Amino acid sequence: MDMGLRERKKRETRQRISNVATKLFLARGFDEVTVAEVAEAAQVSKMTVFNYFPRKEDLYLDRHEEIIEVLTSAITGRGELSVTAAVRRLCHELTAAGHPLSGADDGVPRFWSVIKASPALQLRVLEHLRDTEEALVELLGGQRDPRAWQVAGMLLATVRSVFLANARAVLDGTPATTVARRRKHIDHAFDLLESGLGQQT
To answer: Once rounded to an integer, what is the mean pLDDT over residues 77-85?
Structure first.
């Protein structure tokens, strides 16, 4: 089996396990479902589940690696754009596409209700934010660079504010397709960021 096919099968297995787990969590609540039940429903072993998802929480919060990947790609592939301009563009693109990472998604109310009911998931969200910040720090100058920490922290806070603004609008009953067409809140957030960091960052 060539590496391309092998990797594709691994991705498909990972997604299938996550989809099964999410369905169970939405139906019964995160804390009421065991990893063993997920494994049985997905027709894999419990060990296989943990091979793909080190923590039970990651079965539900399965887009963490994707978040880091899209942020990293936006920054490394920015060309002549500043870092802030590149991430601003990314937020516009994700929102316009109604991507789940933008918060402009009709699935937000159900997804968020599971997180609100589980302290374990809430803690894991905070851990993922820390990991994302550290990944940005490495990209922007490294652990020993104080400015890298400052820029990464403010950049991540701005991205998060855009996500939360979109998600809150959906939670308040605005159709995701309407939220996806909104742009002013994104530019306002990044204008505030750039006024503090400077447009060359």
So the answer is: 95
Q: Are 179 and 166 in contact (CB under 8 A)?
A: yes
Q: What's the pLDDT score for residue 1?
A: 47
- Backbone phi, psi, residue 117, to 5°: -90, -5
> Could you read off the pLDDT of 2-61 as tens digits, one per residue?
658 888 899 999 999 999 999 999 999 999 999 999 999 999 999 999 999 999 999 999
In terms of Cβ atoms closer than 10 Å to its own Cβ (0-12, 13-18, 19+), residue 80 is exposed
Closest by CA to 22, choosing from 77, 75, 100, 92, is 100
Is the C-alpha dihedral spanning 93, 95, 96, 99 positive or negative?
positive
Are residues 200 and 172 in contact, defined by beta-carbon separation less than 8 angstroms?
no
- Integer Cα distance of 22 and 28 in angstroms: 10
Residue 31, amino acid: D
* Count of other CB atoms within 10 angstroms of residue 148: 17
Structure tokens at 29: 């609540």
SS3 call for 97: coil
- Give the 3-state secondary structure of residue 62: coil
Closest CA to 180 of 128, 103, 118: 103
The token pair that represents 94 in the structure block: 């994700």
